[in-house]
């Protein structure tokens, strides 16, 4: 009599392996998302620190003179890109000493600072200098706030829990 595995035994092993691989991949995906969230928080903290260093050096926030004194700047992509350019010494008019306050590791060719999902960080500055910023539905007692929207847009379900805020 030959000793070996029957077809049923082989199918049972394959099904069990498939279930285990499926369960493991979900855990791996969650770990990968959590690691990207942590990376985004570190990068947003770096942006806030760079803004504070710029303000300490120049006595104003890193926004062009056209924004200074106006109500808080919106979380626009243009302002965010301009702010990163100033902080990374790519704008000599607003950073005449050409000091590098921020060196983004992952930046696009147009100078934007991208979050781990490839979406631009959004920056809001307290350009009216009242000690708070208005951002979305929040009033924050600070002079800068940063948002990462990459995970929010990646999932296509637009869950507000997927927005990552620098103040949380």
Task: Write structural notes for this entry.
This protein is of the alpha+beta class. The protein has one domain (8-165). It is built from three helices and five strands. It has helices at 7-58, 77-87, 150-154, and strands at 122-125, 133-135, 138-140, 144-148, 164-165. The strands form two sheets. A three-stranded antiparallel sheet has the order 1-4-5. The radius of gyration is 23 Å and the shape is elongated.
Question: Which descriptors would you attach to this protein?
Answer:
two-stranded antiparallel ribbon, alpha+beta, 168 residues, single chain, 5 strands, three-stranded antiparallel β-sheet, 3 helices
Rg measurement, Å:
23 Å
Shape: elongated
- How many helices in DSSP terms? 3
What string, H for helix and E for strand, traces the elements in order? HHEEEEHE
Instruction: Outline the biggest β-sheet.
Output: 3 strands, antiparallel
Strand order of the largest sheet: 1-4-5
Number of strands: 5
The fraction of residues in strands falls at 5-15%
The percent of residues in helical segments reads: 40-55%
Structural class: alpha+beta
Q: What gap, in angstroms, lies between the N and C termini? A: 68 Å
Mean pLDDT figure: 84
């Amino acid at each position: 009599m030959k000793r070996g595995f029957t077809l049923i035994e082989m199918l049972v092993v394959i099904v069990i392996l498939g279930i285990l691989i499926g369960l493991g991949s979900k855990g791996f995906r969650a770990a990968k998302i959590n690691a990207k969230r942590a990376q985004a928080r570190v990068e947003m903290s770096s942006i806030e620190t760079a803004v504070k260093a710029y303000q300490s050096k120049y006595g104003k926030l890193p926004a062009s003179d056209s924004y200074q004194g106006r109500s808080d700047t919106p979380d626009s992509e243009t302002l965010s890109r301009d702010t990163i350019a100033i902080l990374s010494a790519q704008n000599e008019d607003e950073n005449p000493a050409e000091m590098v306050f921020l060196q983004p590791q992952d930046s696009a060719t147009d100078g934007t600072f991208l979050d781990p999902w490839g979406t631009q960080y959004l920056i809001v500055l307290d350009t009216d200098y009242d000690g708070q910023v208005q951002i979305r539905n929040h009033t924050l007692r600070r002079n800068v706030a940063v948002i990462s929207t990459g995970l929010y847009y990646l999932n296509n379900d637009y869950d507000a829990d997927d927005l990552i805020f620098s103040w949380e």
